[in-house]
Write a structure and sequence with these properties.
alpha/beta; about 45% helix; 7 strands; seven-stranded parallel sheet; about 250 residues
Length: about 250
């Protein structure tokens, strides 16, 4: 394929971790709209109904959507996730490492168990998932792509979320390491969202003020992240890049 010609995503297979809810769900729906068949992954039993509805929304685009539950803190369950993916579709063209946890605590209060859990989900799981995905993709004629979801804590210190920031900074470096290792057949990139989804800790008024201070003047939406993922998935000449989708927050 000549450089500059976008990759046709129709009929290809994507696995999006943590795709039952929030940003991951929007990513899955965008990829379904692009014609990709989906693996909808979730980890907690409480997300089962959300996974079912996400899969139904994906299927409304005329694509396949298969649901798999796996605890990403368990190496065996990660391996089973990829075995089931291969058994169901026979291939894997795109992995989106989206699932993460966002614990709040000051650095001197973080216990060893909390530190290890954060790194296990936010860094070790993407590492293991990428290894499994790469092995499948390298065996395919057309290779594939891996996209990691980082955030701005990879580049800026958030005092209330130190262990989260460390995990995301390492994820950006892991993105570059895999891009270099996998070379021609598997492109590896990352997306670093800014304020795209209001959490319970921010009132609508606070959320509006957060947006007003950004260079672009407003907060974003999970769809903005999904668009960035779809863009990177279709670009044959981009690898090792972390694309900030933050309304210019990094510049402040």
């Amino acid at each position: 394929m000549p450089t500059g010609t976008p990759i046709d995503l129709r009929g290809k297979v994507a696995l999006v971790t943590g795709s039952a809810r929030r940003v991951g769900r929007h990513i899955a729906l965008k990829l379904a709209a692009c014609g990709m068949n989906l693996i909808i992954h979730y980890g907690s039993p409480s997300s089962a109904a959300d996974a079912e509805s996400a899969a139904a929304e994906c299927r409304a685009h005329g694509v396949g959507a298969h649901i798999i539950r796996a605890d990403l803190g368990d190496e065996g369950q990660i391996a089973a996730l990829f075995e089931q993916t291969q058994a169901h579709y026979g291939c894997l063209d795109l992995l989106v490492n989206n699932a993460a946890i966002f614990p709040r605590k000051d650095l001197l209060s973080v216990s060893l168990a909390e530190w290890q859990t954060t790194l296990a989900i936010n860094l070790t799981a993407p590492f293991l998932c990428s290894q499994h995905a790469a092995r499948l993709m390298l065996a395919q004629d057309e290779g594939g792509a891996i996209i990691n979801i980082a955030d701005l804590s990879a580049f800026r210190n958030w005092k209330a979320y130190p262990h989260h920031g460390v995990s995301k900074a390492a994820l950006v470096k892991l993105t570059e390491a895999f891009a270099l290792e996998l070379g021609k057949k598997v492109r590896v990139n990352a997306v670093a969202p800014g304020p795209v989804l209001r959490d319970e800790g921010n009132s609508p008024e606070v959320w509006q003020r957060i947006g007003a201070r950004l260079p672009i003047g407003t907060t974003g939406h999970p769809y903005d992240v999904a668009e960035a993922v779809a863009f990177l998935a279709a670009q044959p000449f981009i690898t090792g890049v972390t694309l900030r989708v933050d309304g210019g927050e990094y510049l402040l």
